[in-house]
Amino acid sequence: MKILRNFIFLISIIIGLQACDNNILVDTFDHIPNENWTYIKPVKAVINITDSTKNYNIYVNFRHTADYKYANVWLRFHLLGPKLKDEPLRQEFQLAMPDGEWLGNGSGNLYSYQLIYKENYKFPSNGKYTIVVEQNMRDNPLKNVSDAGVRVVLAKQ
Asked: Using H for helix, E for strand and C for coil, what is the string for 31-62?
């Protein structure tokens, strides 16, 4: 019972700390079923931009197990919204050093990353935008990926 109470207390603190940061518009981590990320299951995030004069940083949240067999990941992005034409962008992210050491933050068997997709990006107008992230590796499904998501924050001026 004491463990459960401590766990609930810890979760409350984490939620409270996240709620205090008004610079975060969205921060998602979607669980990838069976750690197999397929082409047909992209992660999506919807954000409401109320001030298009400000700059934003857009990240990909990515988490894999120690059994992930690549030193990189190729992702394909779609940014959809007012005054935007869907122009998919394919981008590579390094996950490990040449010697195989993971670059992400490790905890147990999992390694987590916040990969920068767009830095100091200005949305063309106010409104709702959807960010879609697809895995774009040759393997389908891409194995040993536990979670993926999107984080959008107000850039520091």
From this structure: ECHHHEECCCCCEEEEEEECCCCCCEEEEEEE
